[in-house]
Design a protein that fits this description.
This protein is mostly helical. The chain contains five helices and no strands.
């Protein structure tokens, strides 16, 4: 096990940047869906804040995941190329948001949205090869 940590310090652990970027994308993709699902349909920030939303456990979970997404992204960037890992994280976030919004909020899952996500991932693959 100590060999793993030594290899990690030297930056020799393959895939750690990719794995953490994917995790950051999942966290970042779930955050807005959870925050939206916690909001009452009558929520209007221009009409004065309803402070109760800030104590809703679902809202708080979404907020925490959003912050964790940034922290995990910073960790990912220390183990790979930002020009590849940031789009990977973002693409994963879009995909996670698309799926979670469909499952949790009943939003539409259209062919156009799927094609858009596929285009993002083709771009990520091309960046990774460059």
């Amino acid at each position: 096990m100590s060999d793993f940590w030594e290899r990690l310090k030297r930056g020799e652990v393959a895939g750690l940047g990719v794995a953490t970027a994917l995790l950051a994308g999942v966290f970042g993709g779930l955050a807005p869906t959870l925050i939206k699902s916690a909001m009452p349909s009558s929520f209007n920030p221009l009409m004065g804040a309803d402070w109760a939303i800030f104590f809703n456990p679902v809202f708080l979970t979404g907020a925490v995941l959003g912050v964790l997404s940034v922290i995990v992204s910073i960790v990912a960037f220390s183990y790979g190329k930002v020009s590849v890992l940031f789009p990977l994280s973002g693409g994963t976030g879009y995909t996670t948001t698309l799926i979670s919004a469909y499952l949790m909020l009943g939003e539409s899952f259209t062919v156009l949205k799927v094609v858009a996500v596929l285009i993002i991932f083709v771009g990520i693959v091309l960046l990774g090869r460059g």
